[in-house]
Write a structure and sequence with these properties.
The protein contains 9 helices and 4 strands; from the N terminus they run H-H-E-H-E-H-H-E-H-E-H-H-H. By secondary structure, the chain is of the alpha+beta class. Pfam families: Nitroreductase.
Length: 259
Amino acid sequence: MVTNSTIETLLNRRSIRKFVAEPFDDDTVATLETVAQHAASSQYLNDWSAVRVKDPALKRRMSEIGRQPYIAEAPLLYVFVADEHRNAIIAESKGVPTDSDTYGLAGSYRFSQAQNDAVLALHAMETAAYSLGLGCVILGSLLNDVPGLIEALHLPQYTYPVLGLAIGKPDQAPALKPRMPRELQFFDDVYPSDDDATESIKERIGAFDVSVHEYYDLRNTDRPVDAFSDQIASIAAQRMDATHQVIPNATSQGFRLDR
């Protein structure tokens, strides 16, 4: 592999869940937010926003929703949002009705692209934070209760929460998680799905299971964790909770995912 400081930063990223209790200076915050704004945006619609959670009581509410106490301790906490609300205001100001069946910013395509934009912005901020020697953890756990999160953050129509991001000075140094063999995630020209490819996946995952199990055993000596394939099977067997269902939650926010 070739390398430089950016590549080294990305290769050494790890989730940090314990932070030094130090506030952020305004210049660092401005830097991280400006970097996020420079991420790619589909059709230049800028259809994402981020809510910085500063109020301690609201941080505690985020930790309750995420079921992770360390969320409340994060010196810097954001919730990234797919945002067509701002664009709806702009459209209406130009005489475009937003309540018609032909309204183009509430359908499934724009919903998915707005989510993509939010993730790209979050990743840019995360990478910038790591390059400054900070630590981060991405908080998919905030989607444990989407209606509760929408209510807590007062998210208006045509918005939808995507992910959270906690940032701070690391107060831990966890080991790097093992990664899958590249051959399981990178393919040439077509997705391999014949019988030979299926058998190859099973064989390679078996070896990956061993490395993942060793990683978790070293990290949690008092609480062994299942191998990777067992974790997949366990999650696959779980019935999805109603609060995780995208269509009803997105519909309540004004999106029309059947279009």
